[in-house]
Amino acid sequence: MKYRDLQIQTQREAPNNARTEGFSFLVRAGYLTRENVPTQLGEIALNYLRYLSNAVDFVSYLSLPTISNSNEIYFPIASGSIEVAHCPACKYTERLELARFTKTTLPQEEQLPLEKVLTLDCNTIESLANFLGIPKEQTAKALMYTRISDGKFIFVVVRGDMQASEAKLKAQVSEVRAATAEEILSVGAAAGYASAIGLKEALIVVDDLIPASNNLVAGANESGWHLKNTNYGRDYSAEIVADLIQAKAGDACVECGNPLSVLSVIVLANNPEYNFENILLALAETHHDDKGLTLPHPAAPFDVYLMQVPGKELDTRTKAEELYSELQHAGISVLFDDRDERAGVKFNDADLIGCPVRVTVGEKALKEGMVELKLRKVKENQLVAIENIVEKTKSILN
Ligand SMILES: [Zn+2]
Predict the structure, then answer these.
(1) How far is the CA of 15 from the centre of ligand 1 (A)?
(2) How far is the CA of 286 from the centre of ligand 1 (A)?
């Protein structure tokens, strides 16, 4: 392809809306508009990735620091809108809301009798634990929903120090919405002071840690009152006992016990679909230096950036055109900078666009039958005899 045909627009300055360096260089190199829309060059890069994706496991050829599970491939990036739990030790990786972890049970206590206590203005776990002078682990947190499909009231109990995962709950009971004040009253619960004890017509779902936690403080279903020493099995039971808790950083990995990290990511593949825009961003994020993109050979849409520097005595343009056909005939993809720009402008653009190899036809070298070859990631140029340039390029790319 020729530079002018692609109407490539490079930019000297980073766009002021750039959240990451990779996005900034994709805009500056003319792959994307500032509004994150692929340009003609961007479409070529994306189509090339689509073509590459016919190969099995192609993301692994792109030299990206990905993490994955059997369903999805992720790229960690601070601006990512999705969070995953990841174990650096055994590589266990799962979307945070579905990630499993090993819970720590409290030491088993003997079950004590229920005791009703006045707890005015204690309608949060925080205020309740403070008021009673107990750790949050000694409380039961209630969450109340209504199932969308049949209007069933869903009463959820998790330990007070833990965060419930709505995704894990939905996996058990299907889609739910928050219960209304009216619905809460109708099952006999009291908002802020609710427990599963004595409810009418509610589907009770408890986290699997609840049956192993004795003597929890829970609501008395009466405003201003709580019950001490509630015990699952003795005071109430549930239709469903399952893992309902959202993992957090530092929780123990379910596979190996090491602490989990929480990472922001973008999704590169959701089996069997690829997200090529995200893969292009991941490439730019991973492969750049302070001058521009440094795309590796299998990922770059063009292997060679070919340019000529106008000469005073020799016709470098015609020679460059010849090389352009020769390289292409050899199966090498070439971006030919066919503009009448100064060498410096072209060098800068070559660095921004990031093809693995740059070939320059200049008068001085051409007089000796040579052209200049430079690898994007190497500082020095080398002179190569024109008749060897195709072979030389091929050997570099292999
Ligand atoms: Zn692990």
Answers:
(1) 40
(2) 25
